[in-house]
Amino acid sequence: MRRPHGRCGDARRWVVVLGATAALAASLCFAPGRVRGEGTTAAPAPASEIDWAENFGWALEEARAEDKVVMVDFFTHWCHWCKVLDKKTYVDPTVCRTAERMVSVKVNAESEVAVASKYGVRAYPTIAFLNPDGSLRRLIQGYMPPDQFQTLLEEVLNVDAEVEDLIRRVDRKPQDEVSRAALAELLSLAGRHGAAEAQLDTLLLLPAVEPEARVGYQLDRCLAIARQGRLDEAREAIESWLDTAEASPRRPEAEFYLARMEAGVGRSKQAKKLFERITKVRPGTWFAFEASSWIAEASGKPKKGQEAKKG
Predict the structure, then answer these.
(1) How many helices (H) and strands (E) does the chain have?
(2) Which residues make beta-bridge pairs with 105?
(3) In terms of Cα–Cα distance, which of 116, 118, 203, 102 is closest to 156?
(4) Which of 76, 80, 125, 291 is 20–30 Å from 229 (CA)?
């Protein structure tokens, strides 16, 4: 089981990103503010196994924060093919490198019955691929050797066909909120943040959108702006969102993004204040772990005993 950040075991550290706006925006898209290796720009050693998230809840938080697909391996301890998958497929270097573009997590279907039931898991192994909001993208059952599994990962990560299908749907039904929201999310996953912003603008104009959903779309629009490099505008938009979205469950998420942005432009005091708040209001979460990590490294303190408690 891995530390909640990192991919395929890479050690990374927080850095203050200075220089061109485009470079800073890239660091906020929203890959963690860490770099591979310790004090070196050399390429990391080949991955030898997938680096699994601490738990399902943390995986969803990380996926939302970093705009990534989630790969969920539903297993049981008595499942033979689950063990073969671990020993053969999940240690393949090519599979591991591709999995770095996702957030991966293992879920014991017998101890986490509610999660397994939510996604209709009835056989093992079952691999579920989820959007950052937790909605299901694809579900497969059974063992796959490394070459077949690699092909599957590439198919899941390639959203072009889905995007084109959703574009046709919203062209036919401009008021279709569900399809337009899905389109905005897929465009963001594909790195087409300007197009995602345009879809979110349209969503916010639809009269039938529920208040809670509208608040979520507003935050997603703030992030789309940041990912295009319009950082001053994004920071102002997130601050405004925080002023009005008092009851939103996504407040810690917004504060986390804002803290990263403040750290990225060298506003360490503002960043520390936001990170400290996250550790207090969301203890035991992925956000709290990442916030604690930044605080420890910014202060030069060792990260001894830093692991956050599971929620």
Answers:
(1) 14, 6
(2) 72
(3) 102
(4) 291
Q: Which domain holds residue 56?
A: 46-156
| β-strand pairing of 69-75 with 102-108 | parallel
Residues 205 and 147 reside in one and the same domain: no
The full DSSP string for 164-216 is: HHHHHHHHH-TT-HHHHHHHHHHHHHTT-HHHHHHHHHHHHH-TT--HHHHHH
The most distant pair of C-alpha atoms in the chain lies apart, rounded to whole Å, by 57
Our count of domains for the chain comes to 2
Q: What is the CA radius of gyration of the chain?
A: 20
Any domain includes 60? yes
- Whether residue 33 lies inside any domain: the answer is no
Alpha carbon distance 69, 99 (integer Å): 10
Tokens read off for 222: 């703030």
- Residue 275 and residue 240 share a domain: yes
* Whether residue 229 is found in the same domain as residue 246: yes
- CA–chain centroid gap for 245, Å, is 21
Torsion, CA 180, CA 181, CA 183, CA 184, rounded to 10:
120
128 phi and psi angles, rounded to 5 deg: -110, 135
> CATH number, domain at 212?
1.25.40.10
C-alpha 128/C-alpha 145 separation (Å) is 17
pLDDT of 57-88, one tens digit each? 999 999 999 999 999 999 999 999 999 999 99
Question: Quick one: DSSP state of residue 37?
Answer: S
What is the spatial distance between Cα 174 and Cα 77, in angstroms, rounded to a whole number?
48
In degrees rounded to 5, what are phi and psi of residue 267?
Answer: -90, 70
Strand order in the sheet with 69-75: 102-108, 69-75, 126-130, 136-141
* Residue found under tokens 């937790």: 134
pLDDT tens digits for 245-300?
Answer: 988 989 888 999 999 999 888 889 999 999 999 999 889 999 999 999 999 988 87
